[in-house]
Design goal:
With 307 residues, the chain is an all-alpha fold. The chain is built from ten helices and no strands. The longest helix is centred in the first third of the chain and has 24 residues, at 83-106.
Amino acid sequence: MAALAPLPPLPAQFKSIQHHLRTAQEHDKRDPVVAYYCRLYAMQTGMKIDSKTPECRKFLSKLMDQLEALKKQLGDNEAITQEIVGCAHLENYALKMFLYADNEDRAGRFHKNMIKSFYTASLLIDVITVFGELTDENVKHRKYARWKATYIHNCLKNGETPQAGPVGIEEDNDIEENEDAGAASLPTQPTQPSSSSAYDPSNMPSGNYTGIQIPPGAHAPANTPAEVPHSTGVASNTIQPTPQTIPAIDPALFNTISQGDVRLTPEDFARAQKYCKYAGSALQYEDVNTAVQNLQKALKLLTTGRE
């Protein structure tokens, strides 16, 4: 892919999108589709923040030039030309990055790569908003990922051992709304947001974080760093993928026949198509679990008119 023209210095008003732009740069070669939508999110957000100040207008103009150049280079890519495919691509990529970090966390392997993956996953969920409102599940994943990244980073920085696996967090800690969730050292080392600066395990509710249902064992996404730094003290520096657990097929789906009184709306067809696109995107990452779940959702919707 041809190199993009560099951007001018980031105006102070756009501090909240600096990490999304950095994520875009990191993915220019790794995944240009992700890079494109990160820049699109930065563009849309920047326009809302300040589109009148001369330095901001100049920055946004150059960013628009990058977007147009990328769109020409990716003109035949369905993830760019079709929003449904683009949304599915981005959601699956973000989820894979989340699962990679979550599996490392559950296994007690704490290192910079997993911290970065948690935080980057949260940034990519921000980017999904270019397609519309986030699902409740995505909102919870974003909050949990950003909180986990800051918590583990600060534990390691202070010489403490982080608590592995899902734990409860305070519901009023609006981490995802904190523009300073990461400092200049990010994306490798996010810093603690002020809303949770006094982390105390004794004050945290026990059990899993409400609404987070993450199956352990999913493997890292393509191009996700899979090497554990030697300083972590882990005996083996290679992450071995754990066999996936395939979800049980609902037997009722095999016997379901669309009834004559089932009337599907255009929105139903669009949702079914979306589930099929999600399934196809999941298969690109060899994620059978997600593919089967989405195909079952599509089949149920088409045969019963209900989700």
